Amino acid sequence: MSEIIIRKARREDCEAIRMFIQELADYEKMPDGPKIDYKTLERDGFDGQPLYLCNVATSDEKVIGYTLSYYTYSTWCGKSMYLEDIYVTPDFRRKHVGKKLLKAVAKEAIENDCHKLDFVVLKWNPAQEFYKMYRASDLTSKEQWHCYRFVEEDLKKLASDCE
């Protein structure tokens, strides 16, 4: 097997990353979920102040996986990081690529004074076992936190009532 290299994503990786976002959405049984294109990823990640951090895993210079994360802030502990996505193509799963990608995110978080790394995993997703191997806590069962969301339409309605 070729050497697996983890590196910062480049603008030219955005087409592959967008394709992987769709593959991840398909796996998560939400094929209509992703609404962005690779141009949005390019703009938001590489123009002006980047809105996200992204690493890619490569084999023979071909992108085979990625992570996408960003900084958050916790009133309990300060600077934090959120892991939005981690994805490895099926041919490279169970070859420690996910571990290398996750470790790169953890290193970035620690080097930038983050006190925690948050993420969500679907209830049925076997990836939970992967995260538990590295001592991730399931906050839903441990602390009874539930995740909520306002979708764009509801967010607009809520904002329209703002004085």
UniProtKB/TrEMBL annotation:
The entry's keywords: Acyltransferase, Transferase
Coiled-coil spans in chain: none
Xref: Pfam families: Acetyltransf_1
Top-level taxonomic group: Eukaryota
InterPro entries documented for this protein: Acyl_CoA_acyltransferase, Diverse_Substrate_AcTransf, GNAT_dom
Domain annotation N-acetyltransferase: ranges: 4-160
Single annotated GO MF: N-acetyltransferase activity
Similarity annotation: Belongs to the acetyltransferase family.
PANTHER family cross-referenced by the UniProt entry: DIAMINE N-ACETYLTRANSFERASE, GH14572P-RELATED
UniProt-recorded name of the protein: Diamine acetyltransferase 2
Organism: Acromyrmex echinatior
